[in-house]
Amino acid sequence: MKRLCASSAWLLLFAVISAAQAVGAGVPKLDVEQSCREAQTFSGTDNKLAYKGCMQDENDALKQLQQNWSRFKPENRSTCLAQGLSPMPSYVEILTCIEMYDSAGMLNKGSAAGQMNEGVPPVTPAPGVPAASSPPTGGK
Question: How many domains does the chain have?
Fold first, then answer.
């Protein structure tokens, strides 16, 4: 049992080191087919549809990662690769992680709210509804 745990630890360490090295080289190749096959057991009645949907999601996430990989911060890529490799490899997990880091970075900037709303017209309240910045009035 100890030998199995030690072997698993070394494999995980190797995967994380490999992922860190792959950060600069582009999106690493993951075995998402195995992850989707394992996910079928949780899908209910239509295993083939679940597998097909899982693979479609993974392929879509891979395409987005490939298109934007160089735009993502290296430290976010490295962190998210480590998270996306375990327990089951997933491009969806990596993409979601990176998107969360990107969103958090935008929110932490001083003028993030203004940048996020650029080009978006202001919301006009419906007649009789006070604007969000107006204090509510007492209804006595």
Answer: 1
Residues 6+ apart with CB under 8 A from 97: 76, 79, 80, 83, 84
Cα-Cα-Cα-Cα dihedral sign, residues 40, 43, 49, 50: negative
User: CB within 8 A of 65, min separation 6: which ones?
Assistant: 27, 91, 94, 95, 98
Sign (positive or negative) of CA dihedral 100, 78, 26, 39: negative
- The model scores a pTM over 0.85: no
| Most confident by average pLDDT, 11-15, 24-28, 62-66, 85-89 | 62-66
Which pair of structure tokens corresponds to residue 2?
Answer: 């100890």
18 in any annotated domain: no
Q: Range of 86's domain?
A: 47-104
What distance in Å separates the CA atoms of residue 57 and residue 61, rounded to the nearest whole number? 6
pLDDT tens sequence across 58-72: 999 999 999 999 999
